[in-house]
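Chain A, query sequence.
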Amino acid sequence: MPAPAQHTRVYADYLAEVERLGADDLSYYALSLVGPRNAVDRLVKGLRLLA
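Chain A, predicted structure.
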């Protein structure tokens, strides 16, 4: 999840900010892992979810 996603509420504003910054200047706050539960669990090795 790039930083502008945390600071904007309107998708059009988010897209404009990402375009303005460019790929090389984006800071990332999070990432998502998607897939079968057992495969994801193997990758994260028991990390707790933030709730």
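Residues 3-44 form one domain. The two ends are 17 Å apart (CA to CA).
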